[in-house]
Amino acid sequence: MAGKLALPPLQMLVVFEAAARHGNFTAAGNELGLSQPAVSQRIQALENLLNGPLFERRHRGVQLTESGNALYQIVRASLTEISEQIERTRHQRSTLRIDTDMGFASYWLLPRMDAIQALIPGVEVQVSTSPNDYDFRDSHAHLAIYFGHGNWPGTQAQKLFPEDVVPVCNQSLIRKMSITPTPGELLNFPLLKLPETRPQRWLNWEDWFRFQRVPAHAHAGSRTFNAYSLVIQAAVEGQGIALGWRPLISSLLASKQLVVCGPEVRTERGYYLISASGKPASAQQEKVSHWLLNEAWNFHHQPAALPDYK
């Protein structure tokens, strides 16, 4: 680890830079709001600290010594760089970053981005997705929406949605089934799925059939996709049956692009709104967090928008 920098007080360097640039202590004082004696005193203190003169005093001003000029070049460049970076930072647009997975971002968060932006005008809302395991401590996010059990270290987790999962397919495929398809009947059709993960993060077809007490060792085949958006698009196109997470597929159910074709399963997992524990939230974070929680509450209390399996 780097040690403490051996630097004189910054004010000394600022006064030195102004005096060297003007070649005059009085002019430097006028620029900085200091008297000529105050400038002279600070320059003398810096020279004492460096054990050598930085200026040659003359009747009408001062001139840098060789060592003074070498120091001036470095101090001038450094203070200029600091000043420019401060200016860039001052004019940098405020941001609010939300981390989540691709499925939630695509099907739930993206359609609501305009509403979120309206809450915090002038703030750039950034959405970041990752297929990797969640670790809010290593993230630069202000908020996150993670799927799991709500036990991520160093976070405050508030549940948005439980894991409610239903089999879904398109209209043409369900016409090939009985009026009320049994769980076992779904084995006659291709099952669309995500790759298996270890440890398992999502409910899969094997889990769903286990909940229905139906052996799933033999079925009409399956198709695996590496993104949930591909699974859902394949279901919309009639390529098979997908497992649909209720919050993500609600608009597709409402528009009849997908229909429910089997019983719902609920697990102990769910989507959680995540923020750093023990860290005060900004006003923007508070607004967006409150809105997301309220939006989730509204979703739970609008069952008409979510057709049930009959």
From TrEMBL:
<feature type="domain" description="HTH lysR-type">
    <location>
        <begin position="8"/>
        <end position="65"/>
    </location>
</feature>
<dbReference type="Pfam" id="PF00126">
    <property type="entry name" value="HTH_1"/>
</dbReference>
<dbReference type="GO" id="GO:0043565">
    <property type="term" value="F:sequence-specific DNA binding"/>
</dbReference>
<dbReference type="InterPro" id="IPR036388">
    <property type="entry name" value="WH-like_DNA-bd_sf"/>
</dbReference>
<keyword id="KW-0804">Transcription</keyword>
<protein>
    <submittedName>
        <fullName>LysR family transcriptional regulator</fullName>
    </submittedName>
</protein>
<keyword id="KW-0678">Repressor</keyword>
<dbReference type="GO" id="GO:0003700">
    <property type="term" value="F:DNA-binding transcription factor activity"/>
</dbReference>
<keyword id="KW-0805">Transcription regulation</keyword>
<dbReference type="InterPro" id="IPR005119">
    <property type="entry name" value="LysR_subst-bd"/>
</dbReference>
<comment type="similarity">
    <text>Belongs to the LysR transcriptional regulatory family.</text>
</comment>
<keyword id="KW-0238">DNA-binding</keyword>
<dbReference type="InterPro" id="IPR036390">
    <property type="entry name" value="WH_DNA-bd_sf"/>
</dbReference>
<dbReference type="InterPro" id="IPR058163">
    <property type="entry name" value="LysR-type_TF_proteobact-type"/>
</dbReference>
<dbReference type="InterPro" id="IPR000847">
    <property type="entry name" value="LysR_HTH_N"/>
</dbReference>
<dbReference type="Pfam" id="PF03466">
    <property type="entry name" value="LysR_substrate"/>
</dbReference>
<dbReference type="GO" id="GO:0006351">
    <property type="term" value="P:DNA-templated transcription"/>
</dbReference>
